[in-house]
Amino acid sequence: MNKKKRRAVIAGNWKMNMTPEKTTALIGELRELVKGKRGCDIVLCVPAIDIPAAVKAAKGSRIRIGAENVHFEEKGAFTGEISAEMLTSAGVEYVIVGHSERRQYFGETDATVNKRVKAALNAGLKVILCVGEVLEQRDLGITGEVLAMQTKIALHGVPEEQLKNLIIAYEPVWAIGTGRVATPEQADEGNGVVRKTVEELYGKKAAEALTVQYGGSMNEKNAAELLGKVNVDGGLIGGASLVASKFAAIVDAAQ
Ligand code: 13P
């Protein structure tokens, strides 16, 4: 496995936090802190309402802006939803799909995740696809099966040439927002299962080129050790992405 073949990507997921005003302030601070940090790509996935402020504040910096979800239909009677075209026209380049909070609280299924992945990739967005097991599944010893199944369904019908716009984030649900981070070995193992599954689907070359992030209580203190693992090519960061200095420290750890 050659980690050098892959681009490290440090991405924040703000979830339901921050207002447009706070967005402008945080990105203003962050862009100074990450100046010249070329060792990884830097992405902030923000609430839809914050997108215009984020795009404006990040302009001319290395920070790219992402959304936290996207609908699979192009347009129509889907109250409250946002289409891929709306995102791209607003200056969004990345989108998170299939986050466990969407799966847990908003009825997202592997099948709808698959539809969203395809709609986003077809619109030219870069997708951060989230997969991860709940604690009960880990305790049952079926983590590998769960990750393989989620990955396979999410990528069903996705052509190989679109993989260059795909990142997969392994996020064990029990480690999200709990402060209970996976051990570097657990993160490496989970990411390895994801990569192996992509190899099964698309072959070794595609799998070796794929950026696989770890997410779940990653912070400025544990990032270096997690990112040091061969299969961990970046991080998807919740809580610690809400503080510019903490997020910048994680970017530093990825250099
Ligand atoms: P925390 O970093 O707050 O645990 O959240 C992780 C996450 O869900 C990122 O998508």
SSE topology:
Elements: E1 9-13, H1 20-33, E2 41-46, H2 51-58, E3 63-67, H3 84-89, E4 94-97, H4 100-105, H5 110-122, E5 126-131, H6 135-139, H7 143-154, E6 166-170, H8 184-202, H9 204-209, E7 211-215, H10 223-227, E8 234-237, H11 244-253
Parallel strand pairs: 1-2, 1-8, 2-3, 3-4, 4-5, 5-6, 6-7, 7-8
Bound molecules: 1,3-dihydroxyacetonephosphate (13P).
Task: Give your account of this protein's structure.
Helix content is 41%, strand content 16%. The protein has 255 residues and is of the alpha/beta class. The chain has a single domain (9-253), classed as TIM Barrel (Alpha-Beta Barrel), CATH 3.20.20.70. The chain has an 8-stranded parallel barrel with strand order 1-2-3-4-5-6-7-8, surrounded by 5 helices. Strand 7, helix 10 and strand 8 form a beta-alpha-beta unit. Helix 1 (20-33) packs parallel to helix 2, helix 1 runs parallel beside helix 11 (244-253) and helix 7 (143-154) crosses helix 8. The chain is globular, with a radius of gyration of 17 Å. The mean pLDDT is 97. The chain binds 1,3-dihydroxyacetonephosphate. 1,3-dihydroxyacetonephosphate binds at residues 13, 99, 171, 176-177, 215-218, 236-240.
Order of helices and strands: EHEHEHEHHEHHEHHEHEH
State the distance separating the first and last CA atoms.
Answer: 19 Å
CATH domain topology:
TIM Barrel
Q: Specify the helix fraction band.
A: 40-55%
Task: Please tell me the total number of domains.
Answer: 1
Detail the poorly predicted runs. none
Strand order of the largest sheet: 1-2-3-4-5-6-7-8
Major β-sheet profile: 8 strands, parallel, barrel
Instruction: Enumerate how many helices there are, as a single number.
Output: 11
Assigned CATH architecture = Alpha-Beta Barrel
What is the structural class? alpha/beta
CATH homologous superfamily (4th level) name: Aldolase class I
